[in-house]
Each structure stands twice: as structure tokens, then as C-alpha cells.
Amino acid sequence: MAETRSWSLKSRVALAVGAVLLLGGIVVLSVALAYGRQAAREAYDRLLLGAARDIAASITIRDGAAVVDMPASAFQMLALAPEDRIRYRVTGPDGATLTGSDAAPAPPPREGAGPVFYDGDLGDEPGRYVALTRRFAERSFSGPVRVMVGQTLRARQALARDIAGGALAVLAAAGIAIGLFAWLAILSALRPLRRLGRALARRDPTDLTPITLPMPSEIAPVLGALNGFMGRLDRQAMASRNLIGDAAHQLRTPVAAIRAQAQDAQDETDPGRRARLLSRIHARSVGLSRLLDRMLDRAMIIHRTDTAPRAAIDLRDVALEIYEALEDTPGGAAIRLDLPPGPVVVRGDALSLVEAGKNLAANALAHGRAPIRLGVARDGAAARLFARDAGPGPAAAIMDGMGARFAAHAPGGAGLGLAIAREVAQSHGGALSLGPRADGFEAALSLPRLGA
């Protein structure tokens, strides 16, 4: 199978941090450029306004006419931008130019007094203008005199670039520092994963005990899932070891007995004794077959404990399936169903519950006293799947060992039926209950009931 390659966590986080820094840098640079242009415009607009006010202040009325005595201070202000060209114009009440260049554009119409800033051409370059109006109301002269001063944009653009360049330099330094700290933070954040990897690498292949390492809350679910997975593997491995051990221990004696009896039957010349030996061989073969069936059933139940999906199940359907499966077995006709009118719902694996119920019913048929009742009942927040016979039940000494593996207390028993039922009950969050009732002895699976 081809290996599926994927980006490392460090690469993904670094890419995400880089994308955030790039996007943030673009936003900050755009803001810096806008701020630089605005700051440069405001700074040089003040110079234009100062120059216009100096010119306006120098206007005097002589012999009924407005006279402009251009002040040197106005040009000194504008000289702060030595690479820019300037243009000025002073117009009288009739709009005629009193001094300056007729090419200076007039401001757009505007209501109210005060200076007006506007854009216009200054020769073959774009320019910025301010218009300032001074009103006269004298006997020999009355009306507004407008002063217009313009300047090219070279100094403004240079100042905006300087501001943006400074912001970009600061941003680049901050980005490098943030990237470095982010990379160190990534390495620190991934250190628990490296510890987890080293802990797994140092482990013996047969060690499936839970890993106990301090982990951040984000990685703790991964460790929990890993421990759960190893727990399931451990249960499956334990089941396999038990199956192998049980097979080696439990099958050796009956197989040896069958071999010996078969050898005796082969050598026996007396027909009657040979028939008895063959009958014993058949009985032991049936018992061995029953033991193998129970051992495989138990292995299957343990396997399904961790692999079979759980679903909402009506225990009445489980009981009905058990009844139909045992109806044609020897003594199965003596079983009676005892089901409540409404659903009794639990969450579980139907196949495992059916197998456990079969063992309870088969045990009652084999060792109990008729009548045998197979049924379902509610018991508070629990539900019971039970098999009940009319007998007094086993002795107290036998009760203590019931439910253990290979605890057979009757001839021909495998000793696994109740052990299977106990393991199914425990895997469903319940328990196997054994004890006398008013009308007999009951073995039951007690399970949590849904909707209780």
C-alpha cells in the first residue's frame, strides 16, 4: 500500500502563522500608506495655508485699489519643500488677477467662509491649492480679495513614502520576531507529542498497560483514545491467551481418554465390552464437542465486546429469539415465555445477549426443575433477562463458584455457560445475578435500561 504523505504539524502551524503575518502585514502596510498620505497632506496643507495667510495679510488698499506687497515669509514657508514648484494668484472682487499667474485654477464653488483646499494641475504636474478670501469694506474699496497658492506634490509623496517605509521596517522586524517566537512556541507545544512517541518506542511489544504522562488538554483526548485502543488490544490478547491456555488444559485429558478408549476398543475381542467402550468414546466425543463449542462461543463473545456496535434493543425480541432457538432442543418444549406488555429497551449487542440468554436457559433446562420460565422484567432503572426454574437451586457451597470458568458442577457440563453470561452482562454495564425467588431459582442478566 502506498504511503499517504501529509504535511507535518509544524509545517501547518508555520504556514498558518505565516499567512496571518502576511495578511496582517498587507493590512498594516495599507493603513500606513493611507496614514502617510494623510499626514503628509495635512503637514503641507498647513504650509500652503500659512503662506496664503501671509499673502492675504500683506494686502493693503491704496488710492481705492488693492495692492499686494508679497511677503518673503510666505516663500520661506514654501521653501521647506525645495523640490516643489509653486504658483500663486490674487484676484479682486471682479475676478481679475491682481498679481500672480492666471493659470492658477479657481477653487470649486463652496458655501461659507474659510480656506478651501482643492486639487489642480500645476503645469504638467498635479498640484495642491488653497484659496483664502479676505473681505474689505472701506469707503474707497469694498469686496472680497481671493488669494490662491498652489504647490506640486513631490515633497508630499516623499514624506508619505518615508512614513510607509518606516512602518514597513518596523513591521518586518516585528514579523521576524513574531515568527521566531511562534516557531519556538510550536516546538514547545509539540514537545508532549515527542514525549509520547518516545514512551511508545521504549515499550515492550507485550506491554499494553495505559500510558500515564502529563499531557495538555488538547492532546489528552488522543492519549485517552490510545489507552482505550491498547486496552481493547489487551483484552483481545488476553482472550486469545486464555483460549490457547484453556484449550491446552481442558482438551488434553478428554482427547487422551478418547485415544486410550479407542485403542482398547480396537484391541477388544469381546463384542459386549467393545460396545461399552464405543459408547464411552461417543459420550466423551459429545462432551468434547460441547466444550469446544462453549470455548469458541466465549472467544466470540469477548471479541464482540470491543468490536460489535451497540444499538437500542428490545429485550423481548431477544427473549423471543432464545425461545425459538431452544424450542426444538431436548426439553425445550418445557420453556414458557414471560414477557411484559411494553418494550424493555437496553443498548447492546443482540447476538451476545442472545448467546448469554441461551446459556441461562440451557443451564435451567439441564439442572433445574420444570416448569422453566424465560422472560423479561423491569427492575427500577434496570432490565432483567431471566431464566427461572421451580427448583431450590444449588447448594451454598456450589453457589460461591458459579459463574467462574470451567466451574462445572454436574456431569457433562463444560463450566462455561454462566461464565459467558457473566462476561456479556459486564460488557453491557450490568451484572449476572443468581439466587432463589419465591417461585424457584433464577439466573438473570441485569442491564441498564434506556429511558429509565
TrEMBL record:
<keyword id="KW-0902">Two-component regulatory system</keyword>
<keyword id="KW-0472">Membrane</keyword>
<feature type="domain" description="Histidine kinase">
    <location>
        <begin position="246"/>
        <end position="451"/>
    </location>
</feature>
<dbReference type="Pfam" id="PF02518">
    <property type="entry name" value="HATPase_c"/>
</dbReference>
<dbReference type="InterPro" id="IPR003594">
    <property type="entry name" value="HATPase_dom"/>
</dbReference>
<dbReference type="InterPro" id="IPR003661">
    <property type="entry name" value="HisK_dim/P_dom"/>
</dbReference>
<keyword id="KW-0812">Transmembrane</keyword>
<dbReference type="Pfam" id="PF00512">
    <property type="entry name" value="HisKA"/>
</dbReference>
<dbReference type="GO" id="GO:0005886">
    <property type="term" value="C:plasma membrane"/>
</dbReference>
<protein>
    <recommendedName>
        <fullName>histidine kinase</fullName>
        <ecNumber>2.7.13.3</ecNumber>
    </recommendedName>
</protein>
<dbReference type="GO" id="GO:0000155">
    <property type="term" value="F:phosphorelay sensor kinase activity"/>
</dbReference>
<dbReference type="InterPro" id="IPR003660">
    <property type="entry name" value="HAMP_dom"/>
</dbReference>
<feature type="transmembrane region" description="Helical">
    <location>
        <begin position="163"/>
        <end position="186"/>
    </location>
</feature>
<keyword id="KW-0597">Phosphoprotein</keyword>
<dbReference type="InterPro" id="IPR005467">
    <property type="entry name" value="His_kinase_dom"/>
</dbReference>
<feature type="domain" description="HAMP">
    <location>
        <begin position="187"/>
        <end position="238"/>
    </location>
</feature>
<keyword id="KW-0808">Transferase</keyword>
<keyword id="KW-1133">Transmembrane helix</keyword>
<dbReference type="InterPro" id="IPR050428">
    <property type="entry name" value="TCS_sensor_his_kinase"/>
</dbReference>
<feature type="transmembrane region" description="Helical">
    <location>
        <begin position="13"/>
        <end position="36"/>
    </location>
</feature>
<dbReference type="Pfam" id="PF08521">
    <property type="entry name" value="2CSK_N"/>
</dbReference>
<dbReference type="InterPro" id="IPR036097">
    <property type="entry name" value="HisK_dim/P_sf"/>
</dbReference>
<dbReference type="InterPro" id="IPR013727">
    <property type="entry name" value="2CSK_N"/>
</dbReference>
<dbReference type="InterPro" id="IPR004358">
    <property type="entry name" value="Sig_transdc_His_kin-like_C"/>
</dbReference>
<dbReference type="InterPro" id="IPR036890">
    <property type="entry name" value="HATPase_C_sf"/>
</dbReference>
<keyword id="KW-0418">Kinase</keyword>
